[in-house]
Amino acid sequence: MDFKLPDIGEGIHEGEIIKWLVKTGEKVAADQPMVEVMTDKATVEIPSPISGTIQTVYAKEGETIEVGKVLVVIQEEGKAAPAPKPEPKKAEAPAAKPTAPSSREVTPVATTESKAVPFGVLATPATRKLARDLDVDLGAVNGTGLHGRVTKEDVQMAYEGQSAAAPRPSHTAVSSTSVVPHTIPTLAAPQRGALQTIPLRGVRKKIAEAMQHSKRTAAHFTYVEEVDMSAVVQLRASVLEEAKRRNVKLSYLPFIIKALIPCLQEFPYLNSSLNDEKEEIVLKGDYNIGIATDTPNGLIVPVIKGADQKNIWQLATEISVLAEKARTGKVAVDDLKGGTFTITNAGSIGGVFATPVINHPEVAILGVNAIRKRPVVKGDQIAIADMMFLSLSVDHRVVDGADAARFMNRMVFFLSEPTRLVFA
Question: What is the mean pLDDT of the chain?
Answer without folding.
Answer: 81
